[in-house]
Amino acid sequence: SLEKEELIFVVIRDKPLSSVKADIVHAFLSIPSLSHSVLSQTSFRAEYRASGGPAVFQKPVRFQVDISASEGGAAPKDSGVFSVSFTLISGPSRRFKRVVETIQAQLLSSHDQPSVQALAGECGPTASPLWGPVGGLRGRKTRMGPRP
């Protein structure tokens, strides 16, 4: 059976890759109890541990953040269209969504163009991606293998 994973996309336009990366790292550093590591030039791994309450309820949220140039965009170093994907690795889904919403709000507020859109939805073999307004739909994605 195919493994389902929680996946949230944010699409950012008219910004250089260096600014997108800087905004993501700045958002990471602004959230207490969140630590991150750099996996590659366009990938990060993050872990959020909630503070307060009994330790037994403190299951950490681990997720990966990948930046990719969207199709039809310019060369990766130029200003263009970038897709930032947040993939839940382990931990509570609701807490993952709250943390990503916080990061997303910072990414969007640091962007001075109104053309930023959030993308998420059921992207299975027969479904097409759903485009919506900022803070739009969120859903699950069926993992079909490595992305090209």
If you had to describe this structure to a student in words, what would you say it looks like?
This is BR serine/threonine kinase 2. It comes from Gopherus agassizii (Agassiz's desert tortoise). With 148 residues, the chain is α+β, with helices and mostly antiparallel strands. It has two helices and eight strands. It has a domain at 16-108: TATA-Binding Protein (2-Layer Sandwich), CATH 3.30.310.80. Helices cover 21% and strands 36% of the residues. Strands 1, 2, 3, 4, 5, 6, 7 and 8 form an eight-stranded antiparallel beta sheet that branches. Strand 2 and strand 3 form a beta hairpin. Helix 1 (17-30) packs across helix 2 (93-109). The radius of gyration is 15 Å and the shape is elongated. The two termini are 22 Å apart.
